[in-house]
Specification:
- By secondary structure, this protein is mainly alpha-helical.
- The termini are far apart.
- Helix 2 (11-30) runs antiparallel to helix 3.
- The longest helix has 20 residues, at 11-30.
- The protein has three helices and no strands.
- The chain crosses the membrane at residues 12-30, 36-55.
């Protein structure tokens, strides 16, 4: 199983990586500005909100049931 397949299955990991990258990028771009800490706190809060919206699967993938295409 390659890395892209794992990332497709784990949406929480993908969201965490995206937010980590944006935090690092914004910290680099903002630098020593007086509102840099406010920006980081807003991004942390946004991560908590977005990660809370992603449904968690409590079990593994459910087996597929064959569809009843015969119409009977």
């Amino acid at each position: 199983m390659n890395i892209l397949t794992k990332l497709k299955c784990s949406s929480h990991l993908l969201v965490a990586l995206i937010f980590a990258f944006t935090m690092l990028l914004s910290a680099f771009l903002v630098g020593e500005h007086e509102n840099a800490s406010t920006l980081v706190l807003i991004q942390i809060c946004a991560y908590v909100i977005v990660a809370g919206q992603i449904p968690r699967s409590k079990t593994g993938p459910k087996p597929c049931k064959p569809c009843n295409a015969s119409g009977a």
